[in-house]
Amino acid sequence: MSRYDNRSGDPSSYRPRTDSSLGTTGFEPPRSKKEYDSSSAPVVSPPKKIDLLDGLTHFEKNFYAESPSVASMTDEEIEAYRLKRQITVEGKDVPKPVREFRDIGFPEYVMQEVMKAGFVEPTPIQAQGWPMALKGRDLIGIAETGSGKTLAYLLPAIVHVNAQPILAPGDGPIVLVLAPTRELAVQIQQEATKFGSSSKIKSTCIYGGVPKGPQVRDLQKGVEIVIATPGRLIDMMESHHTNLRRVTYLVLDEADRMLDMGFEPQMKKIVSQIRPDRQTLYWSATWPKEVEILARQFLYNPYKVVIGSSDLKANHAIHQHVEIVSENQKYKKLVDLMEDIMDGSRILVFMDTKKGCDQITRQLRMDGWPALSIHGDKSQAERDWVLSEFKAGKSPIMTATDVAARGLDVKDVKYVINYDFPGSLEDYVHRIGRTGRAGAKGTAYTFFTAANARFAKELIVILEEAGQKVNPELAKMGRGVPPPPTGHGGFRNRGRGLGGGRSWN
Ligand code: AMP
Predict the structure, then answer these.
(1) Which of 128, 251, 409, 435 to probe ligand 1 with, by most ligand atoms within 8 A of CB?
(2) What element of type H or E holds 478?
(3) Where is the DEAD-box RNA helicase Q domain (predicted)?
(4) What is the C-alpha separation between 341 and 396, in angstroms, rounded?
(5) At residue 53, does pLDDT exceed 60?
(6) pTM for the predicted model, two decimal places
């Protein structure tokens, strides 16, 4: 029995989408506008019911044939492999994991791209997620960005598309990927382009903050894969630039993040417009109650695969340092820290607010630091430019709000600095997870104030789990002792990586 059972419940209890509560067509009936209103989320008008039932044709979704070498794996071998790669599974008839690329049976045109990318073996989420996805069943994947999860759903999506009738004029996409941010959507599309081009699969990215014209043109030309943020997609659907009648493979990427961002009404509205017998792949880095509740509404008899522990856990390749500071010490501490660590490597600095982000960035630039900032109020063109400058190393310091915390796959971020502590431990883990990627080591520095005391206990659990020393002042805060008025126990005292020089106290 899986150790996550008590957390997630029995996946077989997930409600079939043809449940009577969904009405005769299997679609959720239109709801009152009030139900879609939420103080934190933009107002969304109720979905217009689309009656697809008459036009529903059968479609193929099971493409999996177990290879002889996978079939011959014994239960002990399967268990040992899952244990070694920290894979936990739930669900009925879970397929065996696939240890090598050649055993998954992807078509030659997909394998060529995988080989070209130089990958040696499937990542854990791919080893277990590919056979699950290829079997055509719904899937809950609990895995971080950086785990190879994009290809875990994209390569089966490519196989799926190639088995469907070609698009007719006016058809919408066959695969829809919903993502929380423009940055993640763009990144997913880059992978879709790279791995889909050999079979001439077209994809486009639909996100807000940029002119609609080029996106409308892509949609009108016909694209098999659409990667979209929820708001702009609804806009495109309502203005009849696309429709979801052909969608048979739906991916919700970073569902937890989409919920955090208040997209639940939009997600429900979009999903209600897709045929109920679609295949749905639901991805999340975390598994809080709200994420599970939404999964129950969208999925039918899913597999669940968890990579690593479903407890919140930081990447062990990251050195984590926490310094207790007061609010007004932060800027000086930041500059001192950067003087110590700055060697041209990429440094990502997180702030709470867009205003704070702008202010600190301006100050840093006035003080001669090569910093640029990225947050939700910047135009898309500016965000793209800042990101490319950062990626290219031309501007090695990037300040950001949480918009950049998840999903970004920037190679070689050496340091993450939490100038402001985030609003949740999940965000903490995701922010620092921007470093220490793809086997590299990384370092995270976090300024922690008395106002953050409520997070002390959980932060200590994360630090201890990752084998990090806990700053004694933080330990005291975890026991409910308030910090001294000026911060003690600075990074220097941790004796890691900062060399001699200025004192931190
Ligand atoms: P993701 O979790 O999708 O953001 O993936 C993180 C990075 O891992 C991306 O740059 C992928 O191209 C890369 N990646 C995906 N699959 C593999 C694999 N099997 N081996 C090595 N790298 C991979």
Answers:
(1) 409
(2) helix 472-478
(3) 99-127
(4) 12
(5) no
(6) 0.63
Q: What are phi and psi of 142, to 5 degrees?
A: -105, 100
Residue 117 Cα to ligand 1 midpoint, Å, equals 9
Contact 422, 378 (CB under 8 A): no
Q: Which among 108, 114, 73, 120 is positioned nearest to 94, based on CA atoms?
A: 73
Domain limits, CATH 3.40.50.300, in the chain: 68-307, 318-479
Contact status, residue 475 vs residue 463, Cβ threshold 8 Å = no
pLDDT tens per residue, range 356-399? 999 999 999 999 999 999 887 888 788 888 888 988 888 899 99
**Res 450: pLDDT:** 94
Q: Looking at domain 318-479, what is its CATH homologous superfamily? A: P-loop containing nucleotide triphosphate hydrolases (3.40.50.300)
* Pocket-testing residue among 98, 114, 115, 119, ligand 1, by greatest number of atoms within 8 A of Cβ: 119
252 in Cβ contact with 259 (< 8 Å) = no
Q: Which CATH number describes the domain made up of 68-307?
A: 3.40.50.300
**Does residue 11 surpass a pLDDT of 50?**
no
C-alpha span between 413 and 393 (Å, rounded): 10
DSSP letter for each residue of 202-256? -EEEE-SSS-SHHHHHHHHH--SEEEE-HHHHHHHHHTTS---TT--EEEETTHH
Q: Counting Cβ atoms within 10 Å, is residue 288 exposed (0-12), middle (13-18) or buried (19+)?
A: middle
| Res 486: pLDDT | 56
Kindly report which listed range (95-104, 136-145, 176-185, 496-505) carries the lowest average pLDDT score. 496-505
Q: Write down the pLDDT at residue 263.
A: 92
CA of 260 to the centre of ligand 1 (A): 25
* Cα 312 to ligand 1 centroid, rounded to whole Å: 21
- Is the CB of residue 147 below 6 angstroms from any atom belonging to ligand 1? yes
Which of 120, 150, 194, 434 maximizes ligand 1 atoms within 8 Å of its Cβ, making it the mutation to test the pocket?
Answer: 150
Q: What is the mean pLDDT of residues 31-42?
A: 33
Residue at token pair 């529903």 = 56
- Kindly tell me if the per-residue pLDDT of 439 is higher than 70: no
Nearest-atom number in ligand 1 for the CA of 126 is 19
